[in-house]
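Minutes, project check-in
Item: structure for the 72-residue chain
Input as provided by the requester:
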Amino acid sequence: MGKLKVGEVVKWEGCFGTDIPKDAVVKGIQITNGGKYGDSVNEVSWSKMYGRNVVVTLNNGHWAYASQIYRK
């Protein structure tokens, strides 16, 4: 299934997934297990990208839960 990596371009849906998808570059990834903060990693399997178990920091000044991020 592949991995999401820091530096990758993704589709991001702001407003907790209700906005129109926009391109963004991943600047950071944290495995959170449901919270907003967690352990920083350089990559995570796409199979673990669901709900709020991963938080991604983006180059547009925003952060997003896993459920707001999609492969480009």
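Outcome recorded: The longest strand covers residues 22-31.
No further action items on this chain.
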